[in-house]
């Protein structure tokens, strides 16, 4: 997605943007204003490096606006085996979240049916015991 704002050719020149500049451009153009400062804080190089010094990976979700539509995205950082390089990637997780919500609704319905069945069985047992 960043290629839309910062062409790959631009990144491969002597005038290439720094990590901080790329992050700032992306956040300012694709993240709601209320979330920009917090997201930039999570993407801060020193913060990422600190977390990766004691964890193998660091990830978080955030809201992004792409072609005037809100999307839920996940950013993930991983330290590579050489321990000198960090891999950063992101993906849209709208579908994953939507599926999870559907699964929770289905589970909630199943629990409700099970509770009703249990209550009916309890009533039947109570009625038998009363006679």
Give an account of the 3D structure.
The protein is of the alpha+beta class and 131 residues long. The chain is 55% helix and 21% strand. It contains five helices and three strands. The protein has helices at 8-11, 19-30, 33-43, 45-52, 94-130, and strands spanning 57-66, 69-79, 86-92. Strands 1-2-3 form a three-stranded antiparallel beta sheet, with helices on both faces. A hairpin with a 6-residue loop joins strand 2 (69-79) and strand 3 (86-92).
Biggest sheet strand order reads 1-2-3
Query: Biggest sheet, open or closed, and with what strands and sense?
Result: 3 strands, antiparallel
Mean pLDDT rating:
84
- Give me the Rg, rounded: 24 Å
Poorly predicted residue ranges = 1-9
Share in helix: 40-55%
Shape: elongated
Distance between the termini: 71 Å
Strand content: 15-25%
Would you count the extended β strands for me?
Answer: 3
Structural class: alpha+beta
Q: Specify the number of helices.
A: 5
SSE string: HHHHEEEH
